[in-house]
């Protein structure tokens, strides 16, 4: 009897490749959203954005003091400030992940600035349509667009400079995780284009290569024990031989396989006799 269920696409099928591309793009968006969520939840971020909105609301720039009373004006600038920060942050995060280090520093700055500027321009235009019923005219949008893109370029340059001169972290990989999952590393496992980063506070999936993740483990002493696994040595609670290879038990109870080629590393580390 012929099965009515379509066969799952294999790695060689065009449909599989297309699905993987879509999956990666969705993963990039999710990572950017997760980073924005972590930032917007910080009281310091909320206080800064709220303070900027109040200053703009009181001063009434760009003619808003002539068309809006004080309280509606502050509400308007609160909406603009939080919305543009959010869309700009998400657009920036997605651009950085899509580039993935393939461009020079200044080319990356220009791409990120364009992404931020486009997101902010679209957001401001939409808010003005909703708030004032204005139909955007090209002659009116272009001057504001130049200002927005110029500001976006300054922001991109500043953040690039800060990142370049930032003191190295002991474990840079943890910066990619939500704050509630940042703890001592236990293990890193690769799955397709993602790595599962396991810490003492939980597991997070991040879009990156295992080799790049291993380079960001910093001062954490560890070993790659399998083509798909890296472990932190101080989190190994047990090790035993299993056939030609071995198996490790980690501090959170998970088991990690060790390939035959990497058994010697465990012996050198004193985990196996």
What does this structure look like?
The protein is of the alpha+beta class and 273 residues long. It folds into 2 domains: 15-165, no CATH class; 172-268, Beta Barrel (OB fold (Dihydrolipoamide Acetyltransferase, E2P)). 53% of the residues lie in helices and 16% in strands. The protein is built from 8 helices and 8 strands. It has a 5-stranded antiparallel β-sheet with strand order 3-2-1-5-4. β6 and β7 (245-250) form a beta hairpin.
Q: Structural class, from secondary structure content?
A: alpha+beta
Please give the share of residues in helix.
40-55%
Q: Give the count of helical stretches.
A: 8
Please state the average pLDDT score. 84
- Written as H for each helix and E for each strand, in order along the chain, the element string is HHHHHHEEEHEEEEEH
Spatial ordering of strands, largest sheet: 3-2-1-5-4
Fraction of residues in β-strands: 15-25%
Q: Radius of gyration over alpha carbons?
A: 24 Å
Estimate the global geometry from the Cα principal axes: elongated
Number of domains: 2
Total strand count, please? 8
Low-pLDDT windows of residues = 1-12
The termini sit apart by 55 Å
Main beta sheet: strand number and arrangement? Answer: 5 strands, antiparallel
């Amino acid at each position: 009897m012929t099965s009515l269920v379509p066969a799952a696409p294999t790695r060689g099928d065009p449909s599989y490749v297309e699905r993987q591309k879509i999956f990666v793009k969705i993963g990039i968006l999710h990572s950017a959203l997760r980073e924005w969520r972590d930032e917007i939840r910080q009281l310091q971020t909320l206080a800064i954005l709220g303070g900027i909105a109040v200053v703009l609301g009181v001063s009434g720039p760009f003619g808003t003091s002539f068309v809006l009373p004080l309280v509606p004006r502050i509400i308007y600038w609160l909406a603009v400030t939080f919305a543009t920060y959010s869309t700009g942050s998400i657009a920036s995060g997605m651009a950085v992940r899509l580039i993935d280090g393939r461009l020079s520093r200044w080319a990356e700055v220009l791409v990120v600035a364009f992404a931020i500027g486009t997101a902010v321009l679209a957001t401001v235009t939409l808010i003005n349509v909703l708030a004032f019923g204005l139909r955007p005219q090209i002659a009116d949008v272009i001057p504001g667009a130049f200002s927005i893109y110029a500001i976006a370029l300054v922001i991109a340059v500043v953040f690039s400079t800060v990142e370049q001169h930032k003191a190295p972290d002991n474990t840079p990989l943890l910066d990619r995780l939500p704050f509630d999952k940042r703890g001592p590393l236990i293990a890193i496992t690769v799955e397709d284009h993602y790595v599962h980063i396991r810490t003492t506070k939980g597991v997070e999936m991040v879009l990156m290569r295992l080799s790049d993740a291993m380079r960001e483990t910093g001062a954490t002493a560890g070993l790659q024990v399998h083509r798909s696994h890296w472990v932190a040595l101080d989190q190994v609670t047990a090790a035993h031989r299993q056939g030609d290879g071995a198996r490790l038990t980690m501090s959170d109870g998970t088991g990690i396989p060790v390939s035959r080629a990497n058994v010697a590393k465990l012996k050198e580390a004193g985990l196996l006799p």
